[in-house]
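Table 4 source record.
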Amino acid sequence: MTLFSANLGFLWQELPLPDAIRAARKAGFDAVECHWPYAVPAVEVRRALDETGLAMLGLNTVRGHVADGDNGLSALPDRIDEARAAIRQAIAYAEAIGTPNIHVMAGKAEGDAARQVFVDNLAYACDLAEACGKTILIEPLNPYDAPGYFLASSAQACEIIGAIGKPNLKLMFDCYHIQIIEGDLTRRLEQLMPIIGHIQIAAVPSRAEPDSGEVDYRHILKMVARLGYSAPIGAEYRPQGAVEAGLGWMAVLR
């Protein structure tokens, strides 16, 4: 049976994070994940997790100055101190709530200097995370949703992971983004499974519930299970209405 994690960056956005965790439990999710929980005291999030028995699988480093267009900091050559402060913040929060995975966001950048800074910051993150048994994730984002984002393909992510050579650096394989960037999801998953740390799904191209659009997730999730992946799949989609009204996909894909 496939397990599912509710991405609370998109689902139940109208609720405070602890209440969104409770809503995910009530709706039948097996775990949760989030984007930027930092405005909520970690003790409140941990209390809701303990109450529901759910694990928070992952969280992101902060984007930076969102009003100025920032979408991450770790590939920005002139923002190294901010990027490393964001990494430390994310790891500390993850420790406080028992979260195993930290997605280090690259940001909008290009060129060799950006790559070197991203590699250096990821190595720094991996060393800190290793000390507390956590995994660092990187995620390619598509150019429609995240124009100018530095990490823009699975091949680029694979090269960077190989260059750093840290066992706790993994790929966040978001099927929605990868399908838009390059397609060929079956072969990509087969090739990249050894370095995949988390998988997410959403309809393509709408990013709505994952039971519509051009990707047949019945096939994808059966194939993922055959490849030996058993962790919860992240449901990172934008609900078309009330979350509860659109959860029919879960029974179909389990």
